[in-house]
Design brief:
Radius of gyration: 36 Å
CATH architecture of the largest domain: 2-Layer Sandwich
CATH topology of the largest domain: BirA Bifunctional Protein, domain 2
Number of helices: 11
CATH superfamily of the largest domain: Bira Bifunctional Protein, Domain 2
Strand content: 15-25%
Number of domains: 2
Length: 357
């Protein structure tokens, strides 16, 4: 044992690197190492011999392991010293220019929309992204056979087999927030509801997750004329033009009656969008008067109160205003794209200071 000890302590002391040290560890205390083989011989000894040899072998093994650990730490310290000789920093050099982050176009447009509607007296309401089936569909007068409730269009949350509780979904629009706002605040009411929504669709102009803002105004004597004025003022402020022309086309939405899709007069001459001029029309949103059943679902008496509602795609607004061709690029997290289309972090959009400075 003394010979083994002297041999390996000397070899460990002279090891030049961690690879050589690992080879010595295997030779000495590995499964087939010399010390390990000696310990296997304990079974062939008499109890008296085993009582004498066992503690000595264990002490030898511990001593070799301690020597290995100490040498490994010494090699690591030496390697660090060598690195420090070549890797150094001159603290007297001038600092690198600070790189400022940018605001994502979706966040910027959300702030722009919020600033415009806040000036009209709308507050911001928020709600959960995982919604009950009732808030997302039933309360909005969407019948059970409606295509939007099919699993090919809507993301349903997992339910265990035999679970009788009503299903939950990733909300397909921010309209459930309107129901929650009516339940919480009652009438009169004037809110916008921006946020993420989810639908099973993916192409150049659709993604499974996108952003909407919906507006709701409930009061006495509200009419489509109020809705038209509100939307005209919004479009003029958002696109920063002096005049716009909107066209209301009769449509059908379960939660509004009457319902209308809204087009805006525009021009695509030379591939550039110009709002308020030209001979083309472009659909920008859906709107209408709130259906009486939706008011009832929000605990508001439809015989006394009425209101209008509208929904706009925030991502689509950003694409139109800032000339972004592909919706999918919004969510690719490409830093080059973000630096090109991003907004300065301190440029907060205001009506008096400008929306898109």
């Amino acid at each position: 044992m003394d010979d083994l000890r002297d041999k390996y302590i000397s070899l460990i002391s002279g090891a030049k690197d961690e690879a050589a040290l690992e080879d010595l560890r295997v030779q000495a205390v590995g499964k087939k190492g010399e010390v390990s083989l000696k310990m296997r011989e304990l079974g062939k000894m008499t109890p008296e011999e085993r009582q004498e040899a066992g503690p000595k072998l264990n002490a030898l093994k511990d001593e070799i392991n301690s020597a290995l650990a100490a040498k490994k730490a010494a090699l690591a310290d030496a390697a660090l010293d060598e690195r420090l000789k070549t890797e150094w920093l001159d603290v007297t050099l001038p600092g690198r220019p600070r790189r400022n982050g940018t605001i994502h176009p979706v966040s910027q447009v959300t702030e722009e929309v919020t600033a415009i509607f806040a000036d009209m007296g709308f507050s911001v309401a928020e709600g959960p992204q995982v919604e009950s089936d009732w808030h997302n569909f039933d309360a909005l007068n969407i019948p059970g056979h409606h295509p939007a409730r099919a699993e090919m269009d809507t993301f349903y949350m997992y339910r265990a087999e035999g679970d009788e509780r009503p299903p939950h979904v990733l909300r397909t629009h921010t309209s459930p927030v309107q129901i929650r706002s009516m339940e919480l605040q009652g009438a009169p009411l004037r809110v916008i509801c921006p946020g993420r929504v989810y639908r099973a669709d993916f192409d150049q102009t659709h993604t499974p997750m996108f952003h909407q803002v919906e507006g709701l105004a409930v009061d006495t004597d509200i009419s489509m004329a109020n809705l038209k004025w509100c939307l005209e003022e919004f479009v003029k402020a958002f696109f920063e033009v002096d005049a716009v022309e909107l066209r209301f086309r009769a449509s059908h939405f379960p939660f509004t009656e009457p319902s209308a899709e809204v087009d805006i007069r525009c021009s695509w001459e030379g591939g550039t969008l110009k709002i308020g001029e030209g001979d083309d029309w472009m659909e920008i949103l859906g709107s209408g008067m709130v259906h009486p059943k939706v008011l009832q679902a929000g605990n508001i008496d439809p015989d006394r109160w009425q209101g209008f509602a509208f929904g706009i795609g925030i991502d689509r607004l950003a694409m139109l205003k800032y000339g972004i061709p592909d919706l999918r690029a919004f969510f690719d997290s490409d830093l080059r794209w973000l630096r090109h289309y991003g907004f300065a972090s301190l440029d907060v959009p205001t009506l008096h200071g400008g929306l898109s400075r």
